[in-house]
Amino acid sequence: MGVLSNFPESIQDIMRKSVEMTRMNTGMIINFAMNYGGKADIIQAIHKCIEDHPNSSEITEDIMESYLYTKGCPAPDLIIRTSGEKRLSNFLLWQSAQSELWFTDTLWPDFNLNLLLSAIDDYRERKVREYA
Fold this sequence. Notes:
Elements: H1 9-22, H2 38-52, H3 61-65, E1 78-81, E2 100-103, H4 113-131
Parallel strand pairs: 1-2
C-alpha cells in the first residue's frame, strides 16, 4: 500500500509479482507500507470517492473504506509501536480507529518473538477484560 509509482519500474514489477504470487494465500494478511502516509491515503480516497460519487450525501463509511489502500482488509486489531514513540506517526489513521495499541522502547531491528508474544498476551488480557 502506498504510492508505488514513485519507485523505479523494476521495483514496481517485483512488488506486482509478489502480490500476484500470494494472491490466493489464506491464513494471514501482511501489508507492506511503501511510500505510505495515512493522511495521503485518506486524501486520495476522498478524491476517488468524490469522482465516483458526485452526490456526497451518498458517501458512507463503507464506501469511503473501499477507496483506501487497505480496501478488503480488516482493520488491525493490534498496532505495535516500537522505539519508545507514543504516537501513530501518520500510520493507518482511518483503519486504526478501534485498534488496540501496544508500546515498547525496543527499536524495530531488536524487536523479537518474545516481545511479539508479550504484545499478544497483553492484547488477549485486554479482550478478556472487555468481555468480562
